[in-house]
Amino acid sequence: MPITLMHIDDEPDIREVAAMALELDPEISLTSVASGEAALAQLSAGARPDVILLDVMMPRLDGPGVLSALRRMEGLDETPVIFMTARAQSGEVDRFKALGAIGVITKPFDPMTLAGQVRDLLAEARE
Amino acid sequence: MTADPLARLRGQFRKKAHEDAAAMRRALGQGALGLQQVEHLAHSLAGAAGVFGYVEISTAALAVDSRFAGGQAPDEDEVAALLAAIDRI
């Protein structure tokens, strides 16, 4: 099934390797964004991805801040969000899910399985 | 033979890791003022290094990052281990 995905991460090398990894799935249409502010600007302008892959720790506006903001935006209150973080102890994962994320992908991620992880989390959330 | 799709990015990562190590050494020289930058660099390396197969750097960076996540000051030996791991690549 085709999906549109917005990936938000301040690290250029992570964005690039994630793009390479996600493009292994020909049915994923990807938009990469370098900051929470830029992402909210695109979403405010009408972007409506099927799923958002969101880095937790970014300067200025972090992942939870982005999630909180987009939940207040019309048409984005139920958009599935998956956090990406290097700090994925169980307590943190529970906290991210309590914020409304459908799941957490741990960094470092495996480029060969990233697209599959996203699809699996989406499928679980839709069950 | 299949070309390594990550080779170019891995090269970029190595260059950036050495820049990060230099920045971390400068930040450490600033004492408490530099700690936020040390945290940011360690966190970034913890996430990126493993993606590119640099497990030793990723593990060392995660140890430093975990101190910050727990609200603690970084452990000197763990920071030294991270910098040494970067120096080896």
What is the strand and helix layout of this fold?
The complex is a heterodimer of chains A (127) and B (89).
Chain A: E1 3-8, H1 12-22, E2 28-33, H2 36-44, E3 51-55, H3 63-71, E4 81-85, H4 90-98, E5 103-106, H5 114-126
Parallel strand pairs in A: 1-2, 1-3, 3-4, 4-5
Helix pairs in contact in A: 2-3
Chain B: H1 7-28, H2 35-51, H3 55-69, H4 76-87
What would your notes on this structure say?
The complex is a heterodimer of chains A (127) and B (89). Chain A is α/β, with parallel strands linked by helices. Chain A has one domain (3-126): Response regulator (Rossmann fold). In chain A, 40% of the residues lie in helices and 20% in strands. Chain A is built from 5 helices and 5 strands, in the order E-H-E-H-E-H-E-H-E-H. Chain A has helices at 12-22, 36-44, 63-71, 90-98, 114-126, and strands at residues 3-8, 28-33, 51-55, 81-85, 103-106. A 5-stranded parallel sheet of chain A has the order 2-1-3-4-5, sandwiched between helices. Chain A is globular and about 35 Å long. The model of chain A has no long low-confidence stretch (mean pLDDT 93). Chain B has 89 residues and is mainly alpha-helical. Chain B has a domain at 35-89. Helices cover 74% and strands 0% of the residues of chain B. Chain B has 4 helices and no strands. In chain B, helix 1 (7-28) packs antiparallel against helix 4, helix 2 runs antiparallel to helix 3 (55-69) and helix 3 (55-69) runs antiparallel to helix 4. Chain B is globular and about 45 Å long.
Summarize the structure.
Chain A contains 5 helices and 5 strands. By secondary structure, chain A is of the alpha/beta class. Chain A starts with a strand and ends with a helix.
